[in-house]
Specification:
One of its GO terms (cellular component) is plasma membrane. By secondary structure, the protein is an all-alpha fold. It contains ten helices and no strands. It has one domain.
């Protein structure tokens, strides 16, 4: 019974941080603007990112002298830019309409972003790796199902409603990016942490 409770909690944590339901209007917005996505590529790359950081995240950061807070800070800036594009209806990136957006920004940072990665790493301190893996696999299956049916969802949503949802989730994403930025910048600029981060 305790294992079921732990699994449900772990699953919901990962589900909420990936937030594929919240990201669906963002992805639909890209499709409406003529961009293309490759669902299999998104699932494969997102899974690789998740598994890499779940098992090798700490080693990766140590090898390159990167800390998790700086990584999250960089990701928050990317999310900030994406949210502004959604709210203002502009594109900061010069991407061809026929271009694939499966890698950036969908696989990273929308699905396997800094928030998801840091959450996975932190979960290892409180949950068994088997529970985390099972929760992650089920969440990936849900993401796959939503993305596979995204065209159907797109056709059923009126452009006017889509724009409303897009701006609404843009504001939510903007709020999340600011929260992520502030939390990590506060940690980095803590006097003791600055000394630790700049050590060779």
């Amino acid at each position: 019974m305790e294992h079921i409770k732990l699994f449900c909690t772990c699953f919901l944590i990962i589900f909420s941080i990936i937030d594929i339901i919240g990201n669906a209007p963002i992805i639909i917005g890209y499709l409406k603007n003529g961009f293309k996505i490759n669902v299999n590529q998104i699932i494969l790359l997102s899974s690789v990112i998740f598994l890499f950081f779940l098992f090798l995240g700490d080693y990766f950061f140590n090898i390159f002298g990167i800390d998790i807070y700086s990584f999250s800070l960089a990701g928050s800036i990317i999310l900030f830019i994406i949210s502004l594009e959604m709210i203002l209806g502009i594109n900061f990136q010069k991407i061809k309409k026929s271009a694939q957006i499966s890698i950036i920004p969908i696989s990273f940072p929308l699905i396997a972003g800094p928030g998801s990665v840091t959450t996975l790493i932190s979960l290892t301190e409180n949950y068994d790796i088997k529970i985390i893996l099972l929760s992650l696999i089920i969440n990936i299956i849900i993401v796959y199902f939503v993305l596979k049916n995204i065209s159907f969802i797109e056709k059923k949503i009126n452009n006017e409603y889509l724009n409303i949802f897009k701006k609404l989730f843009g504001i939510i994403l903007l709020s999340f990016s600011i929260k992520l930025f502030v939390r990590n910048i506060c940690y980095i600029f803590n006097s003791e942490n600055i000394l630790n981060l700049i050590k060779p």
